[in-house]
């Protein structure tokens, strides 16, 4: 079982909490309204062998069932992002690996209506601190398409290192796409990511 789950993480008006089956209506409404905004960055399933059709996209309930199962086994932390009590996005800590690696990756999306308001940098900071300080992970990766400048700004603002490019790394929007790799280890943020975020927001850091 996952000792760091379920959990709710809070910073001001930003909250991360586990995704729930009863979120279906609100989640689908936000997703539908942001379809054009999100489609270029959405993961897709490649065709099967010999050009066989891709598997159909899972339903909302199937997605939640899968995410909850992975969370129960300590492999994932599937959050929704709330701002002022309203769902505005999703953040998933995935690929949690223990042993000699102690690492995970983070993926996220946000409602275009509130993009650029500092919500996602705060959400990422909350999740990183939970991974490092509560779970005891050592390394976090975020892989982003080079063209996705808003998403890149989130991690660059928080001080993630760019480690180069992974060619044709993930199947996104119907094809294999290159991704930039950003990473951070626990030693690089001894003060905590949220404290770094607060310093940046107050103007005491290199940028906000």
UniProtKB/TrEMBL annotation:
PROSITE patterns: GNAT. Keywords: Acyltransferase, Transferase. Residues 14-187 form the N-acetyltransferase domain. Pfam families: Acetyltransf_3. One of its GO terms (cellular component) is cytoplasm. It comes from Streptomyces rubellomurinus (strain ATCC 31215). It comes from the Bacteria. InterPro entries: Acyl_CoA_acyltransferase, GNAT_dom, N-acetyltransferase. This is GCN5 family acetyltransferase. Belongs to the acetyltransferase family. RimJ subfamily. GO terms for molecular function: protein-N-terminal-alanine acetyltransferase activity.
């Amino acid at each position: 079982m996952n000792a760091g789950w379920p959990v709710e993480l809070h910073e001001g008006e930003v909250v991360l909490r586990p995704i729930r089956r009863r979120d279906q209506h609100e989640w689908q409404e936000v997703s539908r309204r942001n379809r054009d905004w999100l489609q270029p960055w959405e993961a897709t399933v490649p065709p099967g062998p010999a050009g066989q059709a891709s598997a159909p996209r899972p339903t909302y309930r199937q997605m939640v069932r899968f995410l909850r199962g992975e969370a129960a086994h300590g492999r994932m932390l599937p959050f929704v992002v709330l701002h002022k009590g309203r769902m505005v996005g999703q953040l998933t800590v995935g690929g949690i690996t223990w042993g000699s690696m102690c690492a995970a990756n983070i993926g996220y999306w946000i409602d275009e209506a509130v993009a650029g308001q500092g919500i996602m940098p705060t959400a990422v900071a909350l999740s990183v601190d939970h991974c490092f300080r509560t779970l005891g992970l050592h390394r976090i990766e975020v892989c982003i398409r080079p063209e996705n400048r808003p998403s890149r700004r989130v991690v660059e603002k928080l001080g993630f290192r760019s480690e180069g490019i992974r060619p044709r790394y993930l199947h996104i929007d119907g094809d294999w796409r290159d991704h930039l790799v950003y990473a951070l280890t626990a030693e690089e943020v001894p003060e905590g990511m949220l404290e770094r975020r607060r310093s940046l927001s107050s103007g005491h850091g290199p940028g906000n």
